[in-house]
Amino acid sequence: MSAKVFDTKEVQDLLKAATHLGGANGNPRFKQILHRLLGDLFKAIDDLDITPDEVWVGINYLNKLGKDGEAALLAAGLGLEKYLDIRMDAADKAAGIEGGTPRTIEGPLYVAGAPLRDGVSKIDINPDAEAGPLIIHGTVTGPDGKPVAGAVVECWHANSKGFYSHFDPTGAQSDFNLRGAVKTGADGKYEFRTLMPVGYGCPPQGATQQLLDEIARHGNRPAHVHFFVTSDSHRKLTTQFNIEGDPLIWDDFAYATREELIPHVTEKNGGTALSLKADTYKDIEFNFSLTTLVQGKDNQIVNRPRVSATA
Ligand code: MBD
Ligand code: FE
């Protein structure tokens, strides 16, 4: 069956009717987007001769995706979240905004509401026998290179099994384990005392991994730590760094790796005095350089549904 029908009046009228395009009421922006996306789907079905059986595989996949709660995970795995970063980078470049710590994707595993502390926070709450101590620290500066006081650095990462608290299928972690928030003082400094994370892997029975299997891709990320950095007088930064030496650094299923986001890991002694679980610990210095507001506004705030909890 290769007859092409997309350009017929019947199909074009159907698309307009189904999306209520040109009809009264409704959300005009949503109508515009839906009309375009549905039209692109119809056209792809025509062009690639996608069979009814194949269409129903796709429809039922959406049911599984929703049931598994993995739509945002799939968005990361298909590079859609990276694509949004590429567009924001390009918009910044076009607006002449340069410098600053590079952004990279938020991912689906942030939880709002971590306890806010001044300067330093110890965020490993639950014991993790496999994980060694790690100190992450640095300075938040503005475009002028001066420290930013009153900035809030939020941090979240996985445990030694690659699981995040709140999303841990083993139930081994309390709500804000390995999640924290620190407010900088006049020196712009922040510090998290924590444990070394291990890379994340998609749930093996989930919809995302099912799709990746079909195209022979893995669903793993290198070990990494996420950050939000917010300040009243600067744009919010969403970023991550990778743990140097992880073999998946340039093979991240979510495409979040950037050259500037792989800080050196050094080994230090003196952890006992800092009440870490061992005297020898890993140390990562990672500084944040923020960018200024654009005409007084933060034009890179992303609104998306986020889990929140109370500490
Ligand atoms: C993660 O930890 C993550 O950061 C992303 C982007 C996707 C899945 C798990
Ligand atoms: Fe992550």
TrEMBL record:
GO molecular function ontology, one term from the record: structural constituent of ribosome
Alphabetized InterPro entries for the sequence: Catechol_dOase_N, Cchol_dOase_prob, Intradiol_dOase_C, Intradiol_dOase_core, Intradiol_RC_Dioxygenase, Ribosomal_uS2_CS
Annotated keywords: Aromatic hydrocarbons catabolism, Dioxygenase, Iron, Metal-binding, Oxidoreductase
Signal peptide annotation: none
Single biological process term from Gene Ontology: catechol-containing compound catabolic process
Cellular component GO terms, alphabetical: ribosome
The keyword Metal-binding is annotated on this UniProt entry: yes
Catalytic activity line of the entry: catechol + O2 = cis,cis-muconate + 2 H(+)
UniProt pathway: Aromatic compound metabolism; beta-ketoadipate pathway; 5-oxo-4,5-dihydro-2-furylacetate from catechol: step 1/3
Entries under PANTHER family matching the protein: DIOXYGENASE, PUTATIVE (AFU_ORTHOLOGUE AFUA_2G02910)-RELATED, INTRADIOL RING-CLEAVAGE DIOXYGENASES DOMAIN-CONTAINING PROTEIN-RELATED
Family: Belongs to the intradiol ring-cleavage dioxygenase family.
NCBIfam families: catechol_proteo
Protein name: catechol 1,2-dioxygenase
Organism: Paraburkholderia tagetis
Gene that produces this protein: catA
